[in-house]
Amino acid sequence: MTEIFKLKTERLLLRQWQTDDLEHFAQLNADPEVMQYLPAILDKKQSDMLAEKIVERIHDNGWGFWAVEIIKQKSFAGFVGLNRPTYALPVNPCVEIGWRLARQHWGKGYATEAARASMDFAFKQLDLDNLYAFTSIHNNKSSAVMQRLNMTNQNTNFIHPMVPEEGLYKEHVLYKISKQHWLKSSNF
Questions:
Q1: CB of 178 within 8 A of CB of 119?
Q2: Which of 44, 45, 47, 175 has its CA 20 to 30 A from that of 24?
Q3: Helices 110-124 & 140-148 angle (0-180, nearest 10)
Q4: Which pLDDT value is given to residue 188?
């Protein structure tokens, strides 16, 4: 059986998903502001199917897009973590770092805090050479998180294959950080 890793920061627990998380995840995925730069708002069934895929990947790998729990509140905030994209990207095969948090948890540094823990795990535990992140060229908030993580814009924008042709946010910016750069710049 694969060991399921948990990560803990000062304020957050990154863990395997629980049944109680699904309702909160569905609310997050139904929020037009949260989903603004993603292909579509998800209904409850679609949200549950996505959560099921995430849970399966964590079960198979021991890591993935972990559920983020705010320790003091014992509340689900969204997800942050690592993923191996299965669709065509200009950098495949790769591991991406990503996040999706409920709007009420924005602006508190949770995405950056959890992503730093995920990066530390990726480089020290998984011994990865590089991590990538990408978002719509219009998503300044996610790009700002990538910059706070000392990731570098690769200046190689690409058309995301999972965004519908008519999608306004099809063009994506690509960020990268190497293990060497992370270890030099991290404060761990």
A1: no
A2: 175
A3: 50
A4: 47
The answer to whether residue 2 is domain-embedded is no
CA–CA gap between residue 40 and residue 37 (Å, rounded) = 8
Q: Are 172 and 136 in contact (CB under 8 A)?
A: yes
What tokens appear for 43 in the block? Answer: 């209904």
Q: Are 83 and 57 in contact (CB under 8 A)?
A: yes
Count of structural domains, the chain: 1
| pLDDT averaged per 10 residues, the chain (length 188) | 92 98 98 94 98 97 98 97 94 96 97 98 97 96 97 95 82 96 77
- Residue 1 domain-assigned (yes or no): no
Task: Please tell me the predicted confidence (pLDDT) of residue 163.
Answer: 86
Cα 99 from Cα 106, distance rounded (Å)? 11
Asked, for residue 141, whether it belongs to a domain, the answer is yes
Domain of residue 148: give its range.
7-185
Ramachandran assignment for 67, one of left (phi > 0), alpha (psi -120 to 50 degrees), beta (any other): beta
The CATH number given to whatever domain includes residue 45 is 3.40.630.30
**Residue 168's pLDDT is what?**
77
Q: Is residue 64 part of a domain?
A: yes
| Distance in angstroms (rounded) separating the CA atoms of residues 15 and 65 | 9
Please tell me the predicted confidence (pLDDT) of residue 164. 83
pTM (global) more than 0.70: yes
What is d(CA 77, CA 145) in angstroms, rounded to the nearest whole number? 16
